[in-house]
From TrEMBL, chain A:
Stretches that traverse the bilayer: 12-32, 44-65, 77-101, 129-150, 157-181, 193-212
Name of the protein: Molybdenum transport system permease
InterPro entries: MetI-like, MetI-like_sf, ModB_ABC
One GO MF term attached to the UniProt entry: molybdate ion transmembrane transporter activity
Localization, UniProt: Cell membrane
Domain ABC transmembrane type-1, residue spans: 6-208
Record carries keyword Hydrolase: no
Similarity field: Belongs to the binding-protein-dependent transport system permease family. CysTW subfamily.
UniProt xrefs under PANTHER family: MOLYBDENUM TRANSPORT SYSTEM PERMEASE PROTEIN MODB
UniProt membrane topology term: Multi-pass membrane protein
UniProtKB/TrEMBL annotation, chain B:
InterPro entries: AAA+_ATPase, ABC_transporter-like_ATP-bd, ABC_transporter-like_CS, Molybdenum_import_ModC, P-loop_NTPase
Record-annotated ABC transporter domain positions: 1-232
Protein name per its UniProtKB record: Fe(3+) ions import ATP-binding protein FbpC
Enzyme Commission no: 3.6.3.30
Organism of provenance: Mitsuokella jalaludinii
Matches recorded under Pfam families: ABC_tran
GO function terms (MF aspect): ATP binding; ATP hydrolysis activity
Keywords: ATP-binding, Hydrolase, Nucleotide-binding
Gene3D superfamilies, per database record: P-loop containing nucleotide triphosphate hydrolases
Length: 223, 350
């Protein structure tokens, strides 16, 4: 068994999750505060969750391919994205973002708005409110979103194979390795990768449950 | 401390219009729920933006739609006491205060100590808000507001959703805070008792329309409008019209009453508080406002009887009469003569 897909999967998922984490929280706050087009923005960010991943991959291919405006622009700086490791990261970001965004937004919206209003009238800057009031009180939701998007990025297949391909040692992740192994009729190898993926997923979901039960949802105080 | 408010804001079902000035006093906005009174406070605090108007605190313009001034809530220095106190649940009481205190590290620590001590919370500094009782949470919320240098207090229905006893305890604590604070406060409430006990002046808001402010006594003695009469707790209101300078005809009660008030000329409603009715021995004497009434129902309340009476022999609507238990036990008649004190009858225009 060649271990490259394992390391590549972890590397891709970690980088993608870091981006997704900050982007998802930022978008959750931004959309929650929008007064117009809130529904539209929400739909656009959530779309990759409900679309077939192949469709997401197809659109990414169209957007960043050599013939697209973005692709041609990047080519001037000698940057190609399609069928590279960067593409695998981008595919993972797009499909995991809705999970981070939705759980974070849900967590923020469950916060008592009076707490934020109180912080504002007490003179606390928006930045400090974000870091010391919003995030700590929404932490269980944010943690859940983090683990969900990480596991989603780990298991990403459809968009990756469309946009990044299945190049051994370069873009082949564990999930595409399973696919390639089955294609090559190597069921033993496919089974090995499948077991690794299941163990990974179990570990992370258990980790999430432990983290959430430890921190506990912030309780509304009884007055 | 002086606050000048004149704002207008379109809400879902009506337009909010508030116009008042207060000066080193507790000013109350009395209104039913959803009438726009909390929205008025949020506009003052900068948590909501009025469509038009001007808000000035001690010469500092907080909001002016014409000049395009709209200070952020952070810049306004307005202390807002929320109904649920809105302490930060992830911080201890001391951290709650430290988080909003200004100045150097030493100054902030001094403010924490000073405000914990002032509100008798020193031993609870390391407790989290959910470990505190309602009264302690209210004190902590006040400690936090005072540590942040608020120039004025906004009290948003501070005691609703509390049980009776706790409500009373918190009200006593609020009185202490207001005394020691010495500044101005705007109190929003639907409870006439709270307003009467805490405020020196008050205005009624009905569906966003704020009526001109009155001193507390003037508002309760002569509410002038139907909404104000009902909000100040008057249970007896009848449609009425003026017969001459001294008499009105109360249509719902089917009584022609002698009244003391000469104003207003055109009367739409007459009201009389339940405890101002008096029992009279002997026959009725309509010329002296003594009418024969029949008893429709008797309800025993905690410390009084509520006797529902109506004009004898007619299908008139009932009037609620509240009297001490011993007094009613001594009378207890199915038909009796009741005196309507002319100076207590309140008249309202439409």
């Amino acid at each position: 068994m060649e271990y490259a897909p394992l390391f590549l999967t972890i590397k891709t998922a970690v980088v993608a999750t870091v981006v997704t984490f900050f982007l998802g929280i930022g978008l959750a706050l931004a959309v929650a505060r929008m007064r117009r087009f809130q529904g539209l923005a929400d739909a656009v960010i959530t779309l990759p969750l409900v679309l077939p991943p192949t469709v997401v991959g197809f659109f990414l291919l169209l957007a960043f391919g050599r013939r697209s405006a973005i692709g041609r622009f990047l080519l001037q700086f000698d940057i190609t994205i399609v069928f590279t490791w960067k593409a695998a990261v981008m595919a993972a970001i797009v499909v995991s973002l809705p999970l981070m965004y939705r759980t974070a937004r849900g967590a923020f919206e469950q916060l008592d708005p009076n707490i934020i209003g109180a912080a504002r009238t007490l003179g606390v800057s928006e930045w400090r409110i974000f870091w010391y009031v919003l995030v700590p009180n929404a932490r269980s939701g944010i943690l859940a979103g983090l683990v969900l998007s990480f596991t989603r990025a780990l298991g990403e297949f459809g968009a990756t194979i469309m946009f990044a391909g299945n190049i051994p040692g370069i873009t082949q992740t564990m999930s595409t390795a399973v696919y390639a192994a089955v294609q090559a009729n190597d069921y033993d190898l496919a089974f090995e990768w499948a077991v690794v993926i299941i163990i990974f997923s179990l570990v992370f979901v258990s980790l999430m449950n432990i983290l959430i039960s430890r921190t506990g949802a912030p309780q509304r105080r009884e007055v | 401390m002086e606050l000048d408010v004149k704002i207008e804001k379109k809400l879902r079902n009506f337009t909010l219009r508030a116009d008042f000035t207060l000066r080193d006093e507790v000013f109350a906005l009395l209104g039913a729920s959803g009438c726009g009174k909390s929205m008025t406070l949020k506009c003052i605090a900068g948590l909501e933006r009025p469509d038009r108007g001007r808000i000035v605190l001690d010469g500092r313009v907080l909001f002016d739609s014409e000049q395009g001034i709209d200070l952020s809530p952070q810049e306004r220095r307005v202390g807002y006491l929320f109904q649920n106190f809105a302490l930060f649940p992830n911080m201890t009481i001391a951290e709650n205060i430290r988080f909003v205190a200004r100045g150097t590290r030493q100054q902030r620590e001094a403010r924490v100590r000073e405000n914990l001590a002032r509100f008798d919370l020193t031993e609870l500094g390391n407790a989290y808000p959910m470990e505190l009782s309602g009264g302690q949470q209210q004190r902590a919320a006040f400690a936090r507001i005072l540590a942040s240098d608020a120039k004025i207090l906004l009290l948003d229905e501070p005691f609703s959703a509390l049980d009776h006893y706790l409500k009373w305890k918190l009200e006593l604590e609020l009185r202490e805070v207001l005394k020691s604070y010495g500044g101005a406060a705007v109190l929003v409430s639907h409870d006439r008792g709270e307003v009467y006990r805490l405020a020196s002046r008050a205005a009624v808001i009905e569906r966003g329309q704020m009526q001109p402010p009155h001193t507390r006594d003037a508002l309760f003695e002569n509410p002038q409008t139907l909404a104000a009469t009902l909000l100040t707790g008057c249970k007896n209101v009848s449609k009425a019209e003026r017969l001459d300078a001294h008499r009105v005809r109360a249509a719902d009660w089917q009584l022609d009453l002698t009244v003391a008030a000469r104003e207003p000329q055109s009367v739409a409603y007459a009201g009389l508080r339940a405890h101002f009715l008096e029992y009279r021995e002997g026959a009725e004497d309509p010329a002296r406002n003594i009418f024969s009434m029949e008893v429709a129902d008797v309800i025993e309340d905690t410390f009084s009887y509520l006797v529902m009476i109506r004009s004898a022999g007619h299908q008139a609507s009932c009037i609620r009469w509240e009297l001490p238990k011993a007094e009613w036990r001594a009378i207890k008649a199915p038909v009796l003569s009741v005196y309507f004190p002319p100076e207590k009858i309140m008249l309202m225009e439409s």
